[in-house]
Amino acid sequence: MNKRPLILIANDDGYHAGGIRALIEAARPCGDLLVVAPIEGQSGMSHAITVKVPLRVEKYAEEPGFTLYVCNGTPVDCVKIALNRLVDRHPDLLLTGINHGANSSASVLYSGTMAAAMEGCMYHIPAIGFSLLDHSPEADFDPCVGHVKALIESVLENGLCSGTCLNVNIPKIPAGDIRGIRVCRQARGYWIEEFEHRIDPNNREYYWLTGDFFNEEPDAVDTDEWALKHGYVSIVPVQIDMTCYKSMDKLKKMLE
Amino acid sequence: MNKRPLILIANDDGYHAGGIRALIEAARPCGDLLVVAPIEGQSGMSHAITVKVPLRVEKYAEEPGFTLYVCNGTPVDCVKIALNRLVDRHPDLLLTGINHGANSSASVLYSGTMAAAMEGCMYHIPAIGFSLLDHSPEADFDPCVGHVKALIESVLENGLCSGTCLNVNIPKIPAGDIRGIRVCRQARGYWIEEFEHRIDPNNREYYWLTGDFFNEEPDAVDTDEWALKHGYVSIVPVQIDMTCYKSMDKLKKMLE
Predict the structure, then answer these.
(1) Domains plus CATH for chain B?
(2) Contacts of residue A164 in chain B, CB cutoff 8 Å?
(3) Is the confidence metric ipTM above 0.85 for this complex?
(4) I need a labelling partner for A149 at 20 to 30 A (CA). Which of A109, B43, B60, B226 fits?
């Protein structure tokens, strides 16, 4: 008994990414770490699970208080196989990220980082997904580590509401310029997409998805987008119950 | 002017599936149809988007009031490329499915069918995702068509709240045994997974994901699971704002 907390860690950029290394560094003093990460980058995989090909998982590193597995699946597969096959007790906390790039506003729906966190809260594990607003593989995560560690300690101590996890986004500015932490709601917005049209050497058409985020409410001070733009770390509590309760009555009347 | 409604249709089981053919049949009298469906089954892809390989899209069939494209991407890719490259006007309605298998309760998070519907409501298109509780490729969709058509007509006439789409699940029982339609909330539950462990011919381990759904609140009469179990069509209004508003105050205090 009296064991150190068990902290499960996953991400979507793969086990080699700088973001997960920074997260491991921040979490290491707080508990025993079980890291299960994709072998390759899995950006934009959302809550996808692998059903067509077999899953493989392999132990890559082990030392006291730290074990790393890699998996050929999605971020959610990593969490599932960890919970089902690799843990020796119910984890006290699930951490995902630190993602290379924002997962604020509507991006929460596309994000493998956040889906992996949501998967944890489905199984009643307090969970936090972290993202830095820097897509670069060489992104500097040093300014994040203090905030990440403080949040880990706070959630280990206080827990989270059942069915809820945290979506934490960190602006790409020097640590000293971060103005603080704001609890926010998810901003309304979407991606204005451009499918870049090309012709392959066999004269067949193909497309690459590109796009820019459009914030539908840039002046709403209670949103994650506003907080990030103004130098704050944004924290949105995210729930896995997707029911729109306030439209239920209207819907009932419509279907009468 | 005075055009017929433009109805965009996508699914996750692929263009050849019986479910999408039933949906096309039900929707055909209600408007001009643009169908963009995956070339292969894409079950469990959730809100995944394709970023690592080029997207291809090809016209497979065209007649007055009906066009079918197939795409090598995910259900959400199908919606994105339709909106960006294939529509001649803003669609009046987006329909997805009819999925072979349930998308009730927590399955909404894994579902490509429902993600494609959510993608529509992100772009302010009223959207409905349909699922039949029968995984079989030979599932009989005839009992669904009447309910599906009635819902299409109702949503075309009345619209839906912005940022909200409908998750419609239909029990696998004869049409005459369906007791009616119930507006529900998403039941709390999760999948109890088993990763089946095997050894390949090269003596390497692999796993297949299998599992059974566990309903955490089987007696809650306002849930989709209860409705389906008791012979009703369940309709859950699903929102793309995932913020847990009721935990914001607690979180603010915790982080003070």
Answers:
(1) 6-187+219-242 (3.40.1210.10)
(2) 244, 247
(3) yes
(4) A109
